[in-house]
Each structure stands twice: as structure tokens, then as C-alpha cells.
Design goal:
121 residues, mainly alpha, Arc Repressor Mutant, subunit A
């Protein structure tokens, strides 16, 4: 269950560099899986998953399963003020994720990346 989103919870969720990067990447790419975040941010999967869980608990992201992959996106049910904060943060800070986006784009098209990056166990 997600907590009630208020400014304190929103800004607390964004104070970590990995979580902020995840949100900005989602703003740019709309939807990504854990292995894409891991590659883009050069972080291990457990750290990405832990931060995604915190963002999900805060109500900032949602996920969906497609086959063996779980894709994350920004929660479209966020209050308008919160969506505006995320949009403004992205608009003013695209350079923050420039290298991460370049890494993803170098790998391939959005749809092909999970097959390239994610190894089924």
C-alpha cells in the first residue's frame, strides 16, 4: 500500500541520487526495467530494486509485468502539483542523466534493451 503523498514524502523520496536518477530516467524514457536502470546508472540490481521499492511505497512509481520482465513508470495518478515538480525537475536537470541516457541509447532501441541486458536465470 502506498503512503499519502505530501511534499515531505515527495522530497524525501528524491533526496537520494539513485532515486532521483530513476525518476528522471523514467521521465525521459517513460518505462524501464531494472536491468536498464542497473546498466544506465552503473549500480547493482539489488540497490536499484531497493530504491524502486522505496519509490513505489512513496507512490511515485508503478510497475507492470510483461513476460519475464517488470517495467516501471511514473505513477500517472500523482497529484497535479507532484507531476509538475517532477516535470520541472526533469526540464531543468536533463544533464543530470545525460550519460545514463547515452549508455542506454548505445545499447539499442528501447524495446530491444531488456533482451540484451537482462539474463534469465
Amino acid at each position: 500500500m502506498t503512503s499519502q503523498l505530501d511534499p515531505i514524502n515527495l522530497f524525501k523520496a528524491l533526496t537520494d541520487k539513485v532515486r532521483l536518477s530513476i525518476i528522471l530516467l523514467l521521465h525521459a524514457e517513460k518505462e524501464l526495467c531494472v536491468c536498464e536502470f542497473s546498466e544506465a546508472l552503473d549500480e547493482i540490481q539489488p540497490k536499484i530494486s531497493r530504491n524502486l521499492a522505496l519509490l513505489k511505497t512513496a507512490g511515485l512509481v508503478v510497475n507492470r509485468r510483461q513476460g519475464q520482465w517488470i517495467y516501471y513508470s511514473i505513477n500517472q495518478q500523482l497529484p497535479e502539483w507532484a507531476q509538475q515538480v517532477l516535470t520541472d525537475t526533469y526540464s531543468g536537470n536533463q544533464a543530470f542523466i545525460e550519460q545514463a541516457l547515452a549508455k542506454l541509447n548505445k545499447i539499442g532501441e528501447h524495446e530491444a534493451r531488456p533482451k540484451i541486458l537482462c539474463k534469465s536465470k
